UniProtKB/TrEMBL annotation, chain B:
Name the record gives this protein: Heme lyase CcmF/NrfE family subunit
Annotated PANTHER family: CYTOCHROME C ASSEMBLY PROTEIN-RELATED, CYTOCHROME C-TYPE BIOGENESIS PROTEIN CCMF
Pfam family for this entry, one: CcmF_C
Similarity-based family: Belongs to the CcmF/CycK/Ccl1/NrfE/CcsA family.
Amino acid sequence: MRKLGLILLAMITLVLAAPLAHAVQPDEVMADPAKEARARELSRELRCMVCQNQSIDDSDATLAKDLRLLVRERIAAGDSNKQVLDYLVARYGEFVLLKPRFETHTLVLWLVPPLVLLGGGLALWLHVRRRADTVARAGDAAAPLSADEQARLDRLMADGSDRTA
Amino acid sequence: MIAEAGHYALVLALALALIQSTVPILGARLNDGGLMNVARSAALAQFAFVAVSFGALIWLNVTSDFSVLNVYENSHSAKPLLYKITGVWGNHEGSMLLWVSILALFGGLVAAFGNNLPLSLRAHVLAVQAWVASAFYLFILITSNPFLRIANPPIEGRDLNPVLQDIGLAVHPPLLYLGYVGFSISFSFAAAALLEGRLDAAWARWVRPWTLMAWIFLTLGIAMGSYWAYYELGWGGWWFWDPVENASLMPWLAGTALLHSALVMEKRNALKVWTILLAILTFSLSLLGTFLVRSGVLTSVHAFATDPTRGVFILMILCVFIGGSLALFAWRASALKQGGLFAPISREGALVLNNLFLTTACATVFVGTLYPLALEVVTGDKISVGAPFFNLTFGPLMVPLLLAVPFGPLLAWKRGDLLGAAQRLIAAGIVALLVIALVFAWTKGGAVLAPLAIGLAVFVIAGALVDVVERIGLFRNPLPIAARRARGLPRSAWGTLFAHAGVGVALIGIVCETTWNSEHIAAMKEGDTARLAGYELRFDGAMQRQGPNYRELQTRFSISEGGRPIGVMTPSKRSFTTRNTSTTEAALLSRGVSQLYISLGEIDATGAVTVRIYHKPLVLLIWIGPLLMAFGGLLSLSDRRLRVGAPKPAKPQRALQPAE
């Protein structure tokens, strides 16, 4: 199924960048390695909005290049990582973030993993307890033999064969 | 003529599938062996007709018959023969035909090798298989017919997408589909068990080899796809958490859980209901993947809305089968008797824990993939869910799971001794701690999490070894005795060793690649030298070459390490004239399991080429891990225990083997 991804990717590249360009060009790199590292880290969290699920760090598209430059511009201007992200969200909407923020409309998204884990764990625990109870009760019930069974057992012990069968 | 024959064969396959989906069920109700046996011949004939149809499409592609729309749109007369064949499934219609062909193949395999199945079970399994097949035949015939003709045939085709003109297309989709569709057998068995209301340990024995086989193919298919993306897309990424990838990861996670729960069911006759549910869910996720990829819904919800024929059709198939099977499950599951009991600390308990984490991981991928679509449909808000989300949610779920992996095989069935298992794992724990300390010291001041993750991986590998070492008494007995015991150990124990160790190996590769990957981006001219990770890369020059259906700018780099030449790398850029596109062909040089990776960018006016060079430490382990896992699966598959019909292990009774 990967190949459809490839097809789409290639189609996008076809439309946007006829000669296949590359992500992060040499002329984009910032002089300060620490700042460049921050820029790369942020780039990986930002979506190239015209691509299918690619970060601007990976993408060849022109828009991704513009965004990469914009990120570096903001970093050079002294913005913190959060300020850069806020700036981009204000301009392009939340769609630009590859990791959605924890808000009311993403509540389900963020809560499903922990809830499934906890819910599943709880269900398992209850199941184990219920079955343990059943077993315990079944064990109690099985303990005393009825008079009939006792008589049969005695006979068996006495002559080693079960004549009632 | 060939196209019409292919089309007609497909229609006949549909007709046979319809017979196969009804007559055997009727036979089972009437307890009529003759009617039930129809399933067998129908399944074999159905496969034969699909094979004819698929063969026809291959023939049309090989002979470049451009009067067929599908061939015209995806082929070119100058294309190398290999890509003419693989191009058959490099497009929507052909890919769906491959899908049903594999579905029919599996049905045919059950028919051919299922002689030891109870007659009514086989009738039900094949009938359910035919329900799925009928739905997809209809889908192809109504919405995606690959045999449509063009009234005025053009002289030349539009060529296959250049990115797909690669050996990867020959291997990846068939493997992936063998995995995806292979789970249909588990599904059919589950549905048949529910329909019959009978489910015993023998059922699990029949299902397990099929599940294992599908799982092996899916594991290889995903790994192969990942490696293909790695070298073809040109920026060295190997997993993107792309919805298309997630679509294949979800059935893999559920299938892995199924494999383990079926084990409990086979050995201890427990977890029956859950195993049935997992079998249904696993194939449902395969269907969901098909829907996601084939409907166009991923590109955009709007693209789906403008041409919804295909999407709506698959969505209907999806609803009918998932809804139907779950309804059947809800209706009949309570009739299944609960099986063996076990304490929370036991082999069963460990496998339940495995299932809990794998299922949660699967749910995480599911919600991450589908939530953005759902949100957009409901509220119109657009959000993106990408790699950072999955790394944050999926990653932590794997930690407890992997920590628990070595304990599982060391715990006894029914009631295990956790303390005893822990004691036996002390050696593995010490090795892991040593490795953590070593990596810490070696990369001082670097990443904190990476050494811990590597330690975890080492723990998984060493823990997997401990189990086998203990069982053959490697250090307690003289070597010849240990060797004899090693030979006597069931293959499935070796399978477990390789599969579990493979997970650890892959993790080491993943951690090393993501943490210590180094890159160098530069505009280089002839004679320039770049340095990266202790290697010198000299740009020797570039030359133009003519390929069969492209022109290529091939560059040459001499690589040396400390002044000593170690190899030549030739990354290139290809331009395909027909589609007016170009691709980058990255060059890879393996040093042990690490790789140097060069890919070319644009060439500027002065003749300088933008070059991206990566050094990817231990990167090959990422794919060696899954290979080990698949090998472990294969070993397990060859275990005589899984050969149904060989109930007395001591007697070499020649029986039909369902899964080989």
